[in-house]
Amino acid sequence: MTDKEIFGNILDTMLGGTDTTANLICFVYYLEHYPEIKKRLRHEFDTILGEDLTRPIIYKDLDKLEYCDAVIKEVFRCSLIFIINGRINSQSDKVGGYDWPEGTQFQMLFSAIIKHKDYWTEPEKFDPDRFYRVEESDKYLLEKKNMKTTFPMFGGGIRICPGRKLAIIELNVYYS
Question: Residues that bind heme, according to the entry (predicted)?
Answer without folding.
Answer: 161
